[in-house]
Every structure is written in structure tokens, then in C-alpha cells.
Write a structure and sequence with these properties.
binds zinc ion; Rossmann fold; 16 strands; 15 helices; 5-stranded mixed β-sheet; 8-stranded mixed β-sheet; alpha+beta; BirA Bifunctional Protein, domain 2
């Protein structure tokens, strides 16, 4: 994360916080390291994340620790440990931070990546699913992202999932020879994952496969219909996607994924869904929950594929020569920062011992709008030179006491 890209990180982080706080969500920060069991129990042994991608190691006391590969399982662990159910029947939580997976690094796929995510814990209501999807939609719109797509599906409750897994196994039984190696091994371990294989051969076999959402029990079918109906009423576009299953075992019911053409077909920029059994399975109450996570790196790739301009904060550069002028320059900078109330205003001072000429070059490079020049002569007269870098306003000598006001007049 290099300084030239910092503005876009800040744009995402502050935009996300704005939406979360305005919707009554509270931030939760969990540790980077967790007991490995938090993930093996929560995410599932047979998933790619647990079987191949976690950074897991023994510490000096031979305890198995894992660097969190995702945010939900640690939040549920903390939710139970700190009895958050006693604080409120429904918790609305959000997080922004790094996750770690040992994948082969490529565009949009890093071993340390960053997620913005939210969880609603304590309800089975479809309106919680709707709020999550509505929030994702609002957030991507606030970031300025265009042409993203929301894919939607329902896996049903655990019983529906098990029944569907049998049906899918039946369907694939005499077709295994045409599947890729991964999928052949998934038939017994985690057959639902065959559905989202990106291999073309597997894809063509799956076109005739049964759809998971066609196999829902009465309650799950009704839940899914309510989600779709109300999203339509809210004007939130989505595409029902029969093969959308997600790579984590804990998902049940509604699942969704957000894609953008700039990332390619392999990866989503965000995803989420219901996990109604996870809290109970990890030792807590029998309560429903729904959540999602957005990949910051992938959203940034998508945003940069559009025309997006950095926020244009104004800059003032104070160029000084000699110790006394330098000290005066620092006082002046403090004074301008205090008195000129302008969002994004940066006042830069010279902290090197370079010539005025090289300071002017630095000022130019920094993109300064105004340069204030103060050498020993100016200081003696209690004045400084104010220079407009665009050249539109003539250069002027201004009394040091009046500098902040002059800057305000020129910039605001
Ligand atoms: Zn069901
Ligand atoms: Zn396959």
C-alpha cells in the first residue's frame, strides 16, 4: 500500500464508516491471530480455505494459531465469548481490516488483503438479508463504482442442503469421468463446490444439473421469495444465479456475490449470505445471522478501471531560508492549520536544509496551490511573499500576521 494510492484507501474506509455509522452499526476489531479451531470448526475442514489456504503454525507452547483468513468466524467467537446477545437481541457489527490466505498471488488476489464487512447477528428475518444487500449496493454507489452486478441464490436450510447434495451426487454419478480432478474429489467431500468450478468441461456437465434453489423447503422458499420481492421493490437489481454456492460451509439460505467486469470471471469483489447455524455450532445460542465482506483491493482495481479522480485537497507550501525563518515558517503553518477551516487542506513546511530553488521544485512536485516564501530579509520586515502557483493571482508581499487570512481568501 504505497503513499500514492493512500487517497483511494481513505475514500473507501471513510465512505464505509459513514454508511455503517449512519445505519447504526458498531465497529468490532478482532485479533489477527486466533486459535486454529475457530476456523476449522467455523468454516469447515473440506473447504479450500481451511484445507489449503490458511497461514497456520504452532507457537512456542505448541498451540496451533491461524492468521484470520476471513472475518465472520472470529466475530462469532467474540460474540459468544463476550455474551453480546445479552447486550442486544440483534447485533449490527462492522469491521475493516486485513485477512490472510496463502494463495498464488495475482491481480486482485493477495496473501494479505483487506476487507470491509458487516454482520447482523440475532435474527432469521429476510429483512436482515435485504438490509445487507441494500447496504452493499449503497456503499459501492458511494464509492462511485459503476456496472457492478449482484448475483443471488438460496442454499436453503441444512436439511435442504443435505437433500440437494444427494441429488447432485446422483446427477454426477455417471458423469464423474468428464469432471476435473478437483471436482472428482469434491463429489464426496463437498459436492456443492462442484457447482462453482470455473473449468469449462465441468461447466458444460453442470448446465443440466438440478438447481439448489429449486430444492427449498416451504419456509426457505418463502424466505427467498421475500428477499427477491422486496429487493425489487427497493429498486435493487440482482440476477438469480443457480450455481452460486460460496466456498464456506457455514452458509445457509440466501447467498450473494458482487462481480465487476474489471476483475474477470474468476473472482467476486464481494460476497455474503446467511449463516444460521454458525453461532450455535461454535457454542452460542441458536440464532440466525447474515453478513458480507467486500474486498478492498478488488474494489480499487474496479474503481481505477473507471475514470476516478483523487479528491483535490488544497496545498500550501512554506519555503524558508535560515533557522529563524524556518521556525517562523513552522509557527505560520500551525497558525494556518488552526485558522483556515478547510477540509483536505495540507500545509507543508521545509524540514531539510535545501536552497530556496530546490524548495520551489519540491513545492511544484507536491502540487502546491500556494507557496509562501520567507528568507531573512522578509523576516526582518515582518513579511512573506505569497505566490500563486497557477499564476492567475499576482505574487504579493503580505504581513506575517495576515498570512492565514490571505490564504483563506485565496483558497476558499
Ligand atoms: Zn429449508
Ligand atoms: Zn471442476
Amino acid at each position: 500500500m504505497l503513499p500514492q494510492d493512500a487517497w483511494i484507501w481513505h475514500k473507501l474506509e471513510s465512505g464505509a464508516r459513514e454508511i455503517f455509522e449512519a445505519s447504526g452499526y458498531s465497529e468490532i476489531r478482532t485479533p489477527i491471530l486466533e486459535d486454529t479451531a475457530v476456523f476449522t470448526r467455523g468454516i469447515g475442514q473440506a473447504t479450500d480455505i481451511v484445507s489449503k489456504e490458511m497461514f497456520t503454525f504452532l507457537d512456542r507452547k505448541e498451540r496451533s494459531l491461524t492468521m484470520r483468513p476471513e472475518g465472520t468466524a472470529p466475530i462469532v467467537r467474540a460474540y459468544i465469548e463476550h455474551a453480546l446477545l445479552n447486550v442486544a437481541p440483534i447485533s449490527k457489527l462492522y469491521y475493516i481490516g486485513p485477512m490472510f490466505r496463502a494463495e498464488r498471488p495475482q491481480k486482485g488476489r493477495l496473501r494479505q488483503f483487506h476487507q470491509i464487512g458487516a454482520e447482523i447477528i440475532g435474527t432469521n428475518s429476510p429483512f436482515a438479508d435485504i438490509e445487507s444487500i441494500m447496504q452493499v449496493h449503497a456503499m459501492l454507489a458511494l464509492f462511485g463504482l459503476k456496472d457492478f452486478r449482484i448475483k443471488l441464490n438460496s442454499l436453503g436450510c441444512r436439511a435442504d442442503k443435505a437433500e440437494f447434495a444427494d441429488k447432485l451426487k446422483d446427477y454426477l454419478k455417471d458423469k464423474a469421468a468428464g469432471l476435473c480432478d478437483d471436482c472428482r474429489s469434491r463429489i464426496d467431500k463437498n459436492v456443492l463446490r462442484v457447482l462453482d468450478c470455473k473449468n469449462e468441461g465441468c461447466g458444460s456437465i453442470l448446465t443440466g444439473a438440478p438447481g439448489v434453489a429449486d430444492n427449498l423447503c416451504g419456509a426457505c422458499g418463502e424466505h427467498y421469495e421475500k428477499v427477491k420481492l422486496n429487493l425489487r421493490s427497493l429498486g435493487i437489481g440482482f440476477e438469480e444465479t443457480k450455481n452460486l454456492v460460496r466456498g464456506l460451509d457455514y452458509y445457509t439460505g440466501t447467498v450473494f456475490e458482487i462481480t465487476h467486469a474489471s476483475i474477470g470471471a474468476q473472482d467476486a469483489i464481494g460476497a455474503g449470505g446467511r449463516y444460521d447455524n454458525l453461532v450455535k455450532e461454535m457454542g452460542g445460542a441458536d440464532i440466525g445471522a447474515v453478513g458480507y465482506a467486500l474486498g478492498m483491493e478488488r474494489i480499487i482495481i474496479s474503481l481505477l478501471s473507471q475514470d476516478i479522480a483523487p479528491g483535490a485537497g488544497k496545498k500550501v507550501f512554506i519555503a524558508t531560508l535560515g533557522d529563524e525563518a524556518k521556525l517562523e515558517g513552522m509557527k505560520m503553518a500551525r497558525n494556518i492549520r488552526d485558522k483556515v477551516d478547510m477540509e483536505g487542506l495540507a500545509v507543508l513546511t521545509d524540514v531539510g536544509e535545501t536552497s530556496l530553488k530546490s524548495q520551489m521544485r519540491s513545492a511544484d512536485k507536491s502540487g502546491a496551490d500556494i507557496v509562501i516564501i520567507m528568507g531573512e530579509d522578509e523576516l526582518k520586515q515582518g513579511k512573506a511573499i505569497v505566490k500563486d502557483m497557477s499564476g492567475k493571482v499576482p505574487q504579493a508581499e503580505v504581513s506575517i500576521d495576515a498570512i492565514a487570512e490571505e490564504v483563506r481568501k485565496r483558497l476558499c
